[in-house]
């Protein structure tokens, strides 16, 4: 039995930040991080750059073993937490090790959704979530092992994949289930603009379709037959079908939706009758489901700053502080020579209405998400400079009733409204 004051499950940015924050507040505490992967903290955000060969592996690694030693943080790598006994306050690992805790943080992040075809075509399917995934992709693109790739799925990771393959002049196709890209978020006009970007970059683009069957070809490639009976030949498939949260550890005790539900101090919410078992348990990072006071609903989000911030707040509170989490999430990437940004809550179904500001000739697209007369989110394509202003509007709860028609004028200057 390994005894610790604090056990952190997950050594990503949320877990590591929490551990380091606890250490600052409590110099004597015994702190351990259990991490399923074999690495010290590295940046998932830098993985696309690493795949494009724009940075070295050293740049991707954010900590060294010496950093953990210096902070007296016991990092257990290859140590997957298998179950938690919330009553005894013990974590059992797959290795058989048992860790007892005074306080526990679950910062287990997410994993790429499984695909039905993965087992049979493991050699042909590529993901982009871990450092190992990035090494596999680098091997593919830097050694000229592929001429043609099919990306499956929409979202930011699909755009990252496209950016990587285009950099190496690899012929790229993309198939998405929805009628247009980001259909759950943006209006059709935005989908048209994104389709135009793909066209300019010579990305073959299939919408409202999905893989029905995969067959191997004699030339050691594959042919994907889609639901709409299209045949797409490729050397490999790049899977970008989103992530699911690693929530299994909390079942039967914690209140779990799509993520682990937390209050504003990032303490976990429990099932009725489990309050005592859930005491001294916190969660942070991609795995949490929290109430977003700006949009008025519970949300899960996945982004680096959110994970860093919630890690910091959870760590502070575990060590006796009382910080509250309120933040406007944002995710921004540069790919295909465009800057794509999601700000706040961009759930089209939740918003009462959206306002599209579109300047196709300038490649600019902005969509504003409004709920109860207030801004709750925005999608910005090449209009990143609006982010500070719109963040302010979201956080101030600015009433947009008076300026709605001006907002709808794509040429209006938001700074002076
Ligand atoms: C390719 C890529 C590009 C990205 N680009 C951006 C970007 O540009 N901007 C942005 O804001 N965000 C970006 N993100 C998202 C961002 O990286 C994540 O939101 C962030 O890393 C989440 O941090 P986390 O610590 O919550 O979770 P994770 O990074 O997922 O860390 C959780 C850790 O927990 C471990 N774990 C899980 N279960 C267990 C268990 N049972 N026992 C032990 N360990 C366990 C996992 O191995 C993992 O290391 C990107 C992500 C990827 C994959």
Automatic annotation (TrEMBL):
<dbReference type="InterPro" id="IPR050260">
    <property type="entry name" value="FAD-bd_OxRdtase"/>
</dbReference>
<dbReference type="GO" id="GO:0016491">
    <property type="term" value="F:oxidoreductase activity"/>
</dbReference>
<feature type="domain" description="FAD/NAD(P)-binding">
    <location>
        <begin position="4"/>
        <end position="304"/>
    </location>
</feature>
<dbReference type="InterPro" id="IPR041575">
    <property type="entry name" value="Rubredoxin_C"/>
</dbReference>
<feature type="domain" description="NADH-rubredoxin oxidoreductase C-terminal">
    <location>
        <begin position="343"/>
        <end position="397"/>
    </location>
</feature>
<dbReference type="InterPro" id="IPR016156">
    <property type="entry name" value="FAD/NAD-linked_Rdtase_dimer_sf"/>
</dbReference>
<dbReference type="Pfam" id="PF18267">
    <property type="entry name" value="Rubredoxin_C"/>
</dbReference>
<dbReference type="InterPro" id="IPR023753">
    <property type="entry name" value="FAD/NAD-binding_dom"/>
</dbReference>
<protein>
    <submittedName>
        <fullName>Ferredoxin-NAD(+) reductase</fullName>
    </submittedName>
</protein>
<dbReference type="InterPro" id="IPR036188">
    <property type="entry name" value="FAD/NAD-bd_sf"/>
</dbReference>
<dbReference type="Pfam" id="PF07992">
    <property type="entry name" value="Pyr_redox_2"/>
</dbReference>
<keyword id="KW-0274">FAD</keyword>
<keyword id="KW-0285">Flavoprotein</keyword>
């Amino acid at each position: 039995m390994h005894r610790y004051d604090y056990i952190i499950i997950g050594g990503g940015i949320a877990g590591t930040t929490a551990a380091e924050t606890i250490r600052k507040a409590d110099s004597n505490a015994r702190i351990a991080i259990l991490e399923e992967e074999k690495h010290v903290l590295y940046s998932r955000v830098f993985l696309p750059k690493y795949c494009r060969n724009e940075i070295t592996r050293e740049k991707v690694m954010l900590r060294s073993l010496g950093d953990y030693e210096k902070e007296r943080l016991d990092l257990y790598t290859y140590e997957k937490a298998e179950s938690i006994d919330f009553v005894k306050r013990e974590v059992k690992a797959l290795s058989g090790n048992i860790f007892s805790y005074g306080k526990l943080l679950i910062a287990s992040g997410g994993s790429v959704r499984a695909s039905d075809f993965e087992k049979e075509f493991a050699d042909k399917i590529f993901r982009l979530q871990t450092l190992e995934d990035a090494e596999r992709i680098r091997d593919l693109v830097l050694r000229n092992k592929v001429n043609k790739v099919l990306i499956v799925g929409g979202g930011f990771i699909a755009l990252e994949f496209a950016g990587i393959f285009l950099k190496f002049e690899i012929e790229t196709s993309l198939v998405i289930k929805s009628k247009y890209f980001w259909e759950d978020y943006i209006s059709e006009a935005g989908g048209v603009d994104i389709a135009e970007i793909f066209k300019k970059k010579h990305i073959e683009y299939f919408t409202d379709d999905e893989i029905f069957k995969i067959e191997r070809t004699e030339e050691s490639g594959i042919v994907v037959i889609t639901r709409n009976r299209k045949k797409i030949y490729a050397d490999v498939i790049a899977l970008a079908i989103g992530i699911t949260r690693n929530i299994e550890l909390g079942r039967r005790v914690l209140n779990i939706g799509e993520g682990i539900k937390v209050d504003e101090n990032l303490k976990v919410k429990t099932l009725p009758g489990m309050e005592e078992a859930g005491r001294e348990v916190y969660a942070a990072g991609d795995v949490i489901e929290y109430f977003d006071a700006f949009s008025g609903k519970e949300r899960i989000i996945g982004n680096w700053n959110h994970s860093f911030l919630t890690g910091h707040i959870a760590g502070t509170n575990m060590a006796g502080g009382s910080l509250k989490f309120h933040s406007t999430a944002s995710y921004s990437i540069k790919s295909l020579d465009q800057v794509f940004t999601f700000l706040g809550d961009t759930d089209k179904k939740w918003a009462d209405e959206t306002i599209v500001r579109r300047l196709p000739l300038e490649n600019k697209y902005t969509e504003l998400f409004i709920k109860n007369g207030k801004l709750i989110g925005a999608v910005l394509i090449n209009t990143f400079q609006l982010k500070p202003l719109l963040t302010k509007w979201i956080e101030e709860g600015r009433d947009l009733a008076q300026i709605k028609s001006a907002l709808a004028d794509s040429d209006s200057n938001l700074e002076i409204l």
